[in-house]
What we know:
Blueprint: H1 9-21, H2 24-36, H3 40-63, H4 70-78, H5 80-113, H6 119-136, H7 138-162, H8 180-195, H9 201-204, H10 214-247, H11 251-257, E1 260-261, E2 265-266, H12 269-298, H13 308-321, H14 326-368
Antiparallel strand pairs: 1-2
Helix pairs in contact: 1-7, 1-10, 1-12, 2-3, 2-8, 2-10, 3-8, 3-10, 3-14, 4-5, 5-6, 5-12, 5-13, 6-12, 6-13, 7-12, 8-10, 8-14, 11-12
Subcellular location: Membrane
Transmembrane segments: 12-35, 41-59, 80-101, 113-135, 147-165, 185-208, 220-244, 281-299, 306-328, 334-355
Keywords: Germination, Membrane, Transmembrane, Transmembrane helix, Transport
Amino acid sequence: MLEQGRLGIRQLCILTILIIAGDMMMIYPSVIATFSGQNAWLYAFIGVPLGMGLMYLFVKLADTYPNENLIGVFRKILGFWPGTVLALFYLMYFIFSSAAQSRVVGDFMTSQIFLYTPIRVVLLIFVIPIGWALYNGLENIGRSSEILVPIITTFMFILVVFLLPEVQLNQLVPFTDTTFSQFTHGIVIGFIYPVGEALPILMILPYANQQAHRTRDLMISAGFGNLLMAILVTISMLVMGLFLTQHTIFGSFVLSQKINIANFFQRIEVLMASSWLISTYFKSTVYLYAFVLGIAELFRLKSYHFLILPCVLIVYALSNLVTPNIVFFNTTVIPYWLEWDLTVSLILPVLLLIIHQIKSKLSFNKGRT
């Protein structure tokens, strides 16, 4: 196998949570509030069970050929050449997603913290550890996630608890006059945008220890990660209201600035931002790992390590080119990105499962005759 390291089921579940959280911890409240309006928090909670169902769909697709990663599954179901074409489409999605997440980090750091630092420097500092993680292998990525995930959950708890004095319940009243567009966008964004982007898990699933309750654990992880995002949307609406939630790109950072307990416990926004940077780092790392592993699988290479440096350089270049600034990314790129997420994480997997079922039934009938 291309990857010699193995992941425990707990490490796999933690990586799933980190991928779902990722850059969503900063931009998700703004995105779902922009598309869904006053009912954004409601759609976010509706998305929790739907996201668990989507993770079940992912695992069902992986279980069609348990020893194959996503590239191998495509080729087994569609045949060599159609599967290769679809694999290239998904690999393009992986590399652009890794670059986009890196760019969001760069825009955040240069607009909120390092105001006079060139974004190219920030991006370089961010992608170098990604390359180092890939070089050390999947097993070390999993162990690192176990060490760092308590930071994220702790800071999320602090954010919610210490903002309770700022809560205004009247800002959460649902708006009944909802358009069909807002309803459909809200439902889709509520589960496709966070959980759909956990798709790279399928690239590392064959390298995880097989356990009977793997499907259940992954579904719970998807539900927990999406629940964190729903709580974040709700607290944003309760504290800032709809208008500020829609127009504040880095909502979590602004929320953390509002924490002030007795004029003593305050100014912790940089600590809060560190949790977001950690989750985005792991998300971008797993996406790039999926791309590198996919390229090696596609061309039947014996090792992927010599691909790491050129792929990291590609991500660095793309992150500088993918969008001019975060405003353009939110207003122009994200609407199309949602359609891309919907295509790769729901439409195509469903079609692949249908094709697999048809082929299995035809081969079964042929065997009987």
